[in-house]
Design goal:
Blueprint (H helix, E strand, L loop, with lengths): L3 E4 L2 E4 L4 E7 L9 E6 L6 E6 L6 E3 L7 E6 L4 E6 L8 E7 L18 E6 L1
Parallel strand pairs: 2-10
Antiparallel strand pairs: 1-3, 3-8, 4-5, 4-9, 5-6, 7-8, 9-10
């Protein structure tokens, strides 16, 4: 069973930055397209950013374009999300998962989720 371990969240003021990390316990990580999802209280989980296995293709939720950057280190089985110019509306629990397709409507590949990492942005 895959394990997804997210970290790096915290409390930050609006305009601040955070870098999230997610370690994936899969030797096949390098062939997986990966994504970052988030879920705010009372809202559905949404896909925020995606990256192809080779890292050459990325896409973002419109509201985070220009502020968030997804990256990966295949040698470390890790995917990152650099979040700059954070806004209160970015407050959510952030999760990573593999994605089935390189679209912003992709469902997750794995049915299991990690514990997520809480990001709270104060105004």
């Amino acid at each position: 069973q895959v394990q997804l371990v997210e970290s790096g969240g915290g409390l930050v003021q609006a305009g601040g930055s955070l870098r999230l990390s997610c370690v994936v316990s899969r030797s096949t990580f390098r062939i997986l397209s990966m994504g970052w999802y988030r879920q705010a209280p009372g809202k559905q989980r949404e896909l925020v950013a995606i990256m192809s296995s080779g890292g050459t293709i990325t896409n973002y939720l419109h509201s985070v374009k220009g502020r968030f950057t997804i990256s990966r280190d295949n040698a470390k089985n890790t995917v990152y999300l650099q979040m700059n110019s954070l806004k209160p509306e970015d407050t959510a629990v952030y999760y990573c998962n593999a994605v089935r397709e390189l679209t912003m409507t992709s469902p997750p590949l794995y049915s299991t989720w990690g514990q997520g990492t809480q990001v709270t942005v104060s105004s």
